[in-house]
Design brief:
22 helices, 15 strands, two-stranded antiparallel ribbon, alpha+beta, single chain, seven-stranded mixed beta sheet, about 450 residues
Length: about 450
């Protein structure tokens, strides 16, 4: 039997379902893949539910690579046709332990019984035998663009507390609202998140904060954001007492987050860029608020937060660098831009300019936002011209300087001196000019006779 979605299923998925059905079993597309298909999106991966036990699935797909990814829960992953298909036996979950995993699972007799254990209605649908199976109104919730739990939200969140953050993540990524009863329950039970591993919390929180509608969901659920990152709470309603800002620190932060491009490094930097402001605040004599040094303080706080949240060193360092320098006034000069390119590299400097532009746009309607655009224009022209701002771009290298008689640490020092010179005057990045300059520097430092190349 064929149905309306069959033509949109990839060949390996259709073939796997057909093989299971030919062997006398039922097979269904379930979970996020089906949700995305119904939304007109392209799924990233596919999950199948089947009446076949995992051992039988392994036998049926013996010619494929089969990995026992979750045998305890009846799941195997079949690698076929360039895809990794997770195939799970229909199941009922028993009592949950530690607010995350069921103590035991049992075989389910029907797909409806299997769907009843799932988190949200939009994830509790199945497609098989040419028809959509939707016992909890998931298709209607997709049309309403809302997140709603299957059954009582309190029970769903007590079973698995990570569902609290999953609800927020789905809302941020899909642009959905959260149904009132579900929203009330996740607020009331936010303390259950203490049962979840930090790695899982960080993964879900990052997708929430960096999602297309992340700022709106953070605005609607600030108490959940503070449950994950307590250091955010002092920002809520913190009046900046300055004519340069029309928003409090939290609202300003959300506007900046909304303005930056969808790059996780830049998004996280936007979220944390002013986190040190409350700690730095002081009132001036004229009743104007000041936040001297808040970039450095915010950078240090961000490092502590991200270390606790177990972000990778690479991500943490990139985010903290942007936070630390977000308030830096870079002169509108090519030499200054080359110096910052040397410090940050093109990609990271582009992120910094994105953050500075968003920061300016989120202050007040009369804030001048042209400086970041002009700096970006300078950076792009420098990159197009191929101006030198790294050692690797110099027209000479360490071997050339050895040939002049330089040795040891002096080689690196001399390369840096030459680099500073060509960042001031890029037209001097020519081999003979730099060799001549290096000879003179060595003679001035009394490093002995200069060899001719």
């Amino acid at each position: 039997m064929t149905g309306p979605l069959d033509g949109r299923l990839p060949g390996p998925v259709r073939q796997a379902m057909a093989r299971l059905e030919q062997a006398g079993y039922r097979a269904y597309v379930v979970g996020g893949a089906l949700r995305d298909l119904l939304l007109g999106r392209q799924p990233q991966d596919y999950d199948l539910a089947s009446t076949a036990p995992p051992q039988q699935v392994s036998t049926l797909f013996a010619q494929c690579r089969v990995v026992e990814t979750g045998l305890r829960y009846g799941t195997v992953t079949v690698h076929t046709g360039g895809m990794a298909l997770e195939i799970t036996a229909l199941r009922r979950d028993g009592r949950y332990r530690d607010g995350r995993r069921p103590v035991e699972v049992q075989a389910a007799a029907t797909i409806e019984e299997d769907l009843a254990r799932r988190d949200f209605t939009i994830n509790a649908m199945a497609y098989g035998e040419g028809k959509l199976i939707d016992p909890f109104g998931g298709q209607q919730d997709l049309a309403r663009r809302q997140i709603r739990t299957v059954g009582r939200p309190e029970e769903r969140f007590q079973e698995d507390a990570l569902r609290i953050l999953r609800a927020l993540r789905f809302a941020a990524v899909l642009g959905f609202s959260i149904e009132a009863e579900t929203a009330a329950a996740l607020r009331e039970q936010k303390g259950l998140l203490s049962q979840i591993s930090q790695e899982r919390i960080t993964e879900e929180f990052t997708k929430w904060a960096c999602g297309p509608q992340g700022p709106g969901v953070l605005r609607a659920f600030p108490e959940l954001a503070a449950q994950v990152v307590p250091e955010l709470e002092p920002l809520f309603g913190f009046d900046q007492h300055t004519p340069y800002h029309i928003y409090d620190v939290w609202e300003h932060t959300l506007h900046v987050l909304d303005q930056v491009p969808p790059d996780p490094i830049t998004k996280l930097a936007a979220l944390f860029h002013d986190i040190g402001k409350p700690a730095c605040f002081f009132m001036g004599r004229r009743g104007t608020g000041h936040f001297k040094g808040h970039g450095v303080v915010s950078g240090a706080m961000t490092a502590q937060i991200m270390r606790h949240m177990r972000y990778s060193n690479q991500v943490r360092e990139a985010v903290c660098e942007l936070v630390r320098w977000h308030d830096e006034n870079i002169p509108q000069q090519d030499e200054a831009v080359r110096l910052w390119l040397n410090r940050l590299g093109p990609r990271q400097m582009g992120r910094l300019l994105d953050l500075q532009q968003a920061d300016s746009l989120s202050k007040s309607p009369w804030t001048d936002t042209r400086f970041a655009q002009e700096l970006r224009g300078r950076m792009e022209r420098i990159l197009q011209r191929g101006d030198c701002f790294t050692r690797e771009q110099l027209a000479v290298n360490g071997q050339d300087l050895k040939g002049l008689g330089a040795a040891g640490p002096r080689i690196g020092q001399l390369l840096d001196e030459l680099l500073r010179q060509v960042m001031r005057q890029p037209e001097q990045n020519q081999r003979e000019i730099l060799l001549d300059l290096a000879r003179r520097r060595l003679e001035q430092s009394g490093s002995g006779p200069i060899k001719k190349l």
